[in-house]
Design a protein that fits this description.
nucleotidyltransferase; transferase; alpha/beta; single chain; Maf protein; 17 helices; Rossmann-like_a/b/a_fold; 490 residues; nucleotidyltransferase activity; Nicotinate-nucleotide adenylyltransferase
């Protein structure tokens, strides 16, 4: 039988798609006389290569399989890590690089002119005996598509969700096969490759929270869009990238940090957003035990804020990301609608101080009971999760329809929530951002966006310095010089 990526069966008038089994995938690779490489697996057994051995024909594919479990052996082969850790991206890349070099040195290209080499590696920590830490790992492949072509690379970070080490090992083996199969047979469609990583797996088994593609076959792949796919596909709840636009592991960037988070649409980022950030940041740094060197500011965009007519607008997402990165900010894309879920997420990585900067309308929404009907404890449970640690809300004022400035002193919540609000206000959980530039209170990003789309002038003054130039240069948010010219000539 000829193996395909998806076997199709006709049943009456219906077409039924069957995902190839793990054995089918490994057998297809083993029977491909050109694919040849090494497996190096540390920390969870040799679970991936085991599938290739069992399916038959492995001698066509496997040059070497190894597992340097002992730390001294591992250091002797791959070198020492500065931080002394072994389950890191740096370790994974050293493993991939070392194994590819060894293969190139030991296998004569003249003897194997049609071979495409690969190195698959993983470095993993499974669940501990106390079952307090469920485990995580780095998994990757460095490989060729053509013999005379440079290597491509796919690396990803996983977090186990299962509570049994043996099950985690099996999950890792399945993921490894999916990755290798996708790398060779779906490299021309990275989004589909990403979805195929969960073939024969459930999202309750593992989470993929970081992925990066590089190499000639992925030259046009923007890893930020791949991060967006992880959240969109439900593979993780949140992803992050740094000011350079590179995907970063949330656990690494958030670990033991004081965190100030700003949620918004940032479509586009305005003077209001930056004034809120700058003023709240200064107030946050004045808090007890907040060290500037250990403080991270996160601009968060929820998935619901990326949807346009029910679908995620990727171009619009990239426009927002471009601007925030140009301002030197870390960006997080999340699937959290409620604020307490954001705080819970941060709390899984840090016990340090946390702050949320938001506008008055956002705070009023937080005190709306309808958002917590799914919780058995309702709004009180949500607020317990939101404020159980010493979190503070830094509140940016707004103008109402009569031009009155609304802040924490005169905002109106639902009558049933009035006493609850007073409690948090009285206990210093809600603090007004001081020295606000009231001229900015008339700026709304949705109005700026309309002006840009219609080619009108004047929106430039509503944005931070440098941002209008970036929008015009890269034609972000539908900016069109021809439309501007037509508007001017009317």
């Amino acid at each position: 039988m000829k193996l395909t990526d998806t076997d199709i069966t006709l049943k009456g008038d219906r077409i039924i798609a069957h995902v190839p089994s793990i054995k089918d995938k490994t057998l297809r690779i083993n029977l491909n006389e050109n694919i040849y490489g090494t497996f190096a697996e540390i920390g969870a057994g040799q679970e991936t290569v085991r599938h290739f051995f069992r399916s038959g024909g492995a001698s066509n594919t496997i040059a070497k399989a190894m597992s340097a479990y002992d730390k001294d052996f591992s250091d002797a082969i791959y070198g020492c890590e500065e931080d002394g850790r072994y389950v890191t991206e740096s370790r994974l890349k050293k493993m991939l690089g070392h194994e590819v070099r060894i293969m190139e040195q030991r296998l004569n290209r003249d003897k194997h002119p049609s071979k495409v080499f690969f190195s698959y590696a993983n470095t993993v920590a499974t669940i501990d005996f106390a079952k307090q830490f469920k485990g995580h790992g780095w998994v990757g492949i460095r490989y060729q598509v053509e013999p005379d072509e440079d290597y491509n690379e796919i690396t990803l970070h996983i977090r186990f969700k299962e509570n049994d080490a043996r099950l985690q090992q099996e999950t890792l083996g399945t993921l490894g096969v999916n990755l290798i199969y996708g790398a060779f047979y779906k490299y021309n469609d990275p989004k589909k490759l990403l979805r195929y990583l969960y073939d024969h797996l459930d999202k309750d088994q593992l989470e993929i929270d970081t992925i990066n593609f590089s190499g000639p076959r992925f030259a046009d792949v923007d890893n930020r869009l791949m991060s967006l796919q992880l959240v969109k596909n439900g593979m993780t709840d949140a992803v992050m990238f740094d000011p350079t636009g590179h995907n970063v592991l949330p656990a690494a960037i958030l670990y033991k940090k004081n965190i100030l988070a700003l949620r918004g649409s940032f479509r586009p980022v305005t003077k209001v957003n930056m004034d809120m950030y700058e003023k709240s940041y200064q107030m946050f740094l004045e808090e007890n035990k907040v060290d500037r060197e250990k403080t991270l500011v996160v601009f968060e965009i929820t998935l619901s804020n990326l949807r346009s007519e029910g679908e995620i607008d990727e171009r619009d997402f990239m426009d927002r990301a471009e601007l925030l990165c140009s301002l030197g900010q870390h960006v997080m894309i999340s699937n959290f609608q409620e604020y307490y879920k954001v705080v819970e997420y941060f709390s899984s990585y840090t016990k340090a101080r946390m702050g949320l900067a938001m506008g008055v309308s956002n705070l009023i929404d937080i005190f709306d009971e309808k958002y917590y009907r799914h919780l058995s404890g309702g709004i009180l449970e949500a607020f317990g999760k939101l404020f159980y640690r010493d979190l503070k809300v830094y509140l940016y004022p707004m103008k109402d329809e009569h031009g009155e400035v609304i802040d924490s002193e005169n905002l109106k919540v639902h009558p049933r929530m009035k006493e609850l609000y007073k409690f948090f206000k009285f206990n210093g959980k809600v603090i007004d951002i001081s020295n606000v530039d009231t001229n900015n209170l008339d700026i709304f990003s949705r109005e700026v966006l309309k002006m840009i789309n219609k080619g009108k002038s004047g929106w430039e003054e509503m944005l931070p310095p440098g941002i209008p130039e970036v929008i015009k240069l890269n034609h972000l948010f539908g900016y069109d010089p021809k439309r501007v010219l037509a508007e001017q000539n009317q």
